[in-house]
């Protein structure tokens, strides 16, 4: 309970000043550039929460996200600390998040000013409009992080992927980087307020190219990402994910690059 208390206290202490910083920067027209005020504020927010929880982060394959290109990063999702760990170490990026979070007092306003891309999950038309806006950000050089499972799961085994994030990558014509996060469930589970120290491993897998793909390729792109992440979970942690249905299986999408 001590770690949960520290994390809660840290959240209360760091959120208001950092929200004021990004709101002020937005009001003054400060540009959102790599390493700028917005990146600094989000990184400090997440680093503070990781420190309060006692989280140690180990990165694998970081060269895949530091090659100077924009990407869509697709992560598995089992804990709030998936977001906090990734956000504390990634270069210039934005998260796609469910619109319900925008209504959280103070946090929602700050996240909007920072540049979170809100998606109305129950409104297909608005969701795809959000993805179209995200594609514009990606073409401007911003990395976008998505959780194709849609919400936090109870275990590390992968759940079916939604297709929207892959439509986004195809629209922007940028590679998809599968990201496997492991260790966050032990820090803070989906249905628990308990927070415990631990080591979190972030595996950035080889990018999956989308050059030349169209909307019709969204299923096989999603399948290729799912298989890459499932293979990593099986190889590194002995965690098996449900096999893809035979009807959705397709040949691997192009050659991966390192």
What is the gist of this entry?
This protein is an alpha/beta fold and 258 residues long.
The tally of domains stands at 1
CATH top level assignment = Alpha Beta
Q: Ranges with pLDDT <50 over ≥5 residues?
A: 247-258
Mean pLDDT: 88
Spatial strand order of the main sheet: 1-7-6-2-5-3-4
CATH architecture descriptor text: 3-Layer(aba) Sandwich
Give me the count of strands: 7
Summarize the main sheet.
7 strands, mixed
- At the fold tier of CATH, the topology name is Glycerol-3-phosphate (1)-acyltransferase
Rounded radius of gyration (Å): 18 Å
Range of helix content:
40-55%
What string gives the helices and strands in order? HHEEHEHEHEHEHEH
Overall geometry: globular
Distance between the termini: 42 Å
Structural class: alpha/beta
Q: Indicate the proportion of strand residues.
A: 5-15%
Tally of helical segments: 8
Task: Describe what you observe in this structure.
There is one protein chain. This protein has 258 residues and is of the alpha/beta class. It has a single domain (2-241), classed as Glycerol-3-phosphate (1)-acyltransferase, CATH 3.40.1130. 43% of the residues lie in helices and 14% in strands. A seven-stranded mixed sheet has the order 1-7-6-2-5-3-4, with helices on both faces. α4 (107-114) links the parallel β3 (93-98) and β4. α5 packs parallel to α6 (164-172) and α6 packs across α8 (218-237). The chain is globular, with a radius of gyration of 18 Å. Residues 247-258 have low confidence and may be disordered.
């Amino acid at each position: 309970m001590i770690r949960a208390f520290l994390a809660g206290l840290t959240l209360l202490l760091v959120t208001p000043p950092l929200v004021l910083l990004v709101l002020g920067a937005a009001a003054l027209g400060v540009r959102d550039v790599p390493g700028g005020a917005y990146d600094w504020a989000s990184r400090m927010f997440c680093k503070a929460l990781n420190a309060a929880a006692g989280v140690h982060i180990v990165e694998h394959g970081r060269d895949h996200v530091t090659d100077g290109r924009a990407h869509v990063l697709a992560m598995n999702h089992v804990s709030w600390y998936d977001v906090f760990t990734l956000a504390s170490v990634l270069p210039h990026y934005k998260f796609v998040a469910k619109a319900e979070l925008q209504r959280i007092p103070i946090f929602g306003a700050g996240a909007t000013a920072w540049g979170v891309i809100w998606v109305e999950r129950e409104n297909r038309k608005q969701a795809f409009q959000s993805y179209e806006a995200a594609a514009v950000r990606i073409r401007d050089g911003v990395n976008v992080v998505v959780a194709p499972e849609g919400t936090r799961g109870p275990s590390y085994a992968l759940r079916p992927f939604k297709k929207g994030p892959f439509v986004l990558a195809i629209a922007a014509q940028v590679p998809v980087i599968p990201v496997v996060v492991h260790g966050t469930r032990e820090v803070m589970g989906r249905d628990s307020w308990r927070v415990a120290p631990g080591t979190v491993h972030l595996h950035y897998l080889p990018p999956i190219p989308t050059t030349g793909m169209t909307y019709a390729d969204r299923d096989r792109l999603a399948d290729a990402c799912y298989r890459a992440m499932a293979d990593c979970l099986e190889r590194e942690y002995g965690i098996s994910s449900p096999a893809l249905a035979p009807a959705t299986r397709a040949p691997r999408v192009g050659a991966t690059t390192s």
